[in-house]
Amino acid sequence: MIRFENLRKGFWTRDGPKFVARNVNVVFPSGVSVALLGRNGAGKSTMMRMISGSVRPDSGDIHITGSMSWPVGFAGSFHGDLSGRQNVRFIARVYAVDTNDLIDFVEDFSELGAHFDLPVRSYSSGMKSRLAFGISIGIPFDTYLVDEVTAVGDASFRRKSRAIFRERMRQAGSVVVTHSMNEVRALCTAGAVLEDGELTYFEDVADAIAQHQSNMAAVAN
Amino acid sequence: MTKTPSAHRKLPRLTALRSIVALMLREMGSTYGDSPGGYIWAILQPMGMIAMLSLGFSLLVKSPSLGTSFILFYATGFLTYNIYMEMMKKVAAALKYSRAMLAYPRVLWLDAIIARFTLNLLTLLTVFCVIITIILMTFTTRTVITIQPIVTGILMVALTGAGVGMVNCLLGGLFPVWQIIWKIITRPMFLASGVLFIYEDMPPLVQDILWWNPVMHATGWVRTGFYPNYYASYVSLEYTFGFALSMIAIGLLFLQTYHKKILHR
Questions:
Q1: A25 and A2 in one domain?
Q2: Domain of A113, in residue numbers
Q3: Which residue blocks in B62-176 are alpha helix, DSSP H?
Q4: Residue A92 within any structural domain of the chain
């Protein structure tokens, strides 16, 4: 469960103050896959990082039950000089999972081949995302934070990713950010729309998409 | 498709300890793991320095300030100074060094600093012991070792290095120009730390200035442990440990507030 309590977060930009959250009070239930929707720059990634704990809110709290992944797909979460294998080993140690199990799983899942033993700095962005998704989905978390990663790789890799993600979702929950509405429908059962610092939770993802699309249409006009 | 790793449903305990050990293992793997010869360089580097100092000064002066062995005199001075210098540099760069790893919410900034301090303390202690042992076994030094001042001196200099390193991590992170200023003002540090001489060799005016350098106290205290007829009476444990612990306190206090700003720079 993720419970936002009087959450406030804002930034100063050149055009004046910008709010990611103004007094947000929302609950995401446990074991539910929630799509986080909002226009570009609404603060979806900042929200994800606040949930993961790497960005602090200005005021208010986010209460979390169970273990939480880091935002998968978050740029810069690999050490460029270490190989994919060494990065996996580091994360396995930190998150208390069996190192060899996780290495075997990620090596097989990410399809990096010989690149798995080369420095991550030599990877393409697609390869990095495959590695990132493989590692996080390989660790049993109670809630996964997924930021635009299921949309990487070729069609067969995407199919495989979706399948394993759905399998995980049987025992876990997630918060997913993606621009593809097809992904949203395929992966999530609930949705939340972030608009001008207001976060609204919808139990049915279709309602969230409708709300999001009407927000987008309002801007277009 | 292979099976996903087994699910522990419980939150893992001792998360900080896990992060610290993982960071230490990773630093061990990348610092010396990649260069041919590996860890042997950690010993060869200071050894080369001590050999050069002993050789050079044995040509210039008749005997070292204490005892008859040039190599033991410079080793006790340089190795102590080296602990300060390495520790200071490593801790000052700790956040930058582990930046990629700090992206994981479970790895905290303090873990990065503790990991760096612990691993480098172990490395530097090992280097100290190995080199001193080699010297005592190879050369006739007629020394009688008193262990207590040596341990206190090393602890003193390691904590000073960590404290100064943390404050530099803070200031250098917030004001990049500080790194250049620091380099300039501490350029004479090697000369001012008593590697080449002892405190008592200096005229009173110089003594009054050098007394404020905690590393000067540490080299004197370590040598007190190596030379039975020498006692560094100028050493103040209250001053050096007070200095080191205040630096650490200041570093911890301000890094808690500013570590994000430093990392995002």
A1: yes
A2: 77-140
A3: 70-92, 94-97, 109-138, 147-174
A4: yes
On whether residue A72 sits in a domain, the answer given is: no
All residues of chain A having their beta carbon less than 8 Å from the beta carbon of residue B95 are: none
What are phi and psi for residue A25, nearest 5 degrees?
-130, 95
CB atoms < 10 A from the CB of A20, how many?
26
Query: Where among A98, A123, A140 does a domain terminate?
Result: A140
Return the number of other C-beta atoms located less than 10 Å from residue B89's C-beta.
Answer: 15
Contact status, residue B128 vs residue B212, Cβ threshold 8 Å:
no
* B66 three-state secondary structure: coil
Whether the predicted pLDDT of A150 surpasses 90: no
3-state percent helix, strand, coil for chain A, nearest multiple of 5: 40, 30, 30
Mean local confidence (pLDDT), B160-178: 96
Task: Using CA coordinates, name the residue in chain B closest to A54.
Answer: B105
Which is higher by pLDDT, B56 or B37? Answer: B56
Q: Which of B1, B18, B99 sits opposite A96 (nearest CB)?
A: B18
- What is the number of helices (H) and of strands (E) in chain B? 11, 0
Full-model pTM? 0.84
Confidence class of residue B6 from pLDDT cuts 50, 70 and 90? very low
**What's A22's domain CATH number?**
3.40.50.300
Pairing outcome for strands A59-64 and A2-13: antiparallel
**Per the domain annotation, does A159 fall within a domain?**
yes
Q: What is the mean pLDDT of residues A111-120?
A: 91
Please, what's the largest Cα pairwise distance for chain A? 55
Could you tell me if A221 and A155 lie in one domain?
yes
Same domain, A119 and A216: no
Q: Which of A67, A91, A102 sits opposite B104 (nearest CB)?
A: A91
pLDDT in tens, B233-249: 999 999 999 999 999 99
What is A81-119 written as a DSSP string? Answer: TSBHHHHHHHHHHHTT--HHHHHHHHHHHH--GGGGGSB
Higher pLDDT, A54 or A149: A54
What residue has token string 């190995």?
A: B130
The answer to whether the CB of B170 falls within 8 A of the CB of B258 is yes
Give me the mean pLDDT over the A3-10 stretch.
92
B5 touches chain A (CB under 8 A): yes
- Picking from B4, B11, B30, the nearest residue to A82 by CB comes out as B30
ipTM here: 0.77
Question: What whole-number distance in Å separates Cα of residue A120 and Cα of residue B114?
Answer: 26
Q: What is the pLDDT of residue B144?
A: 87
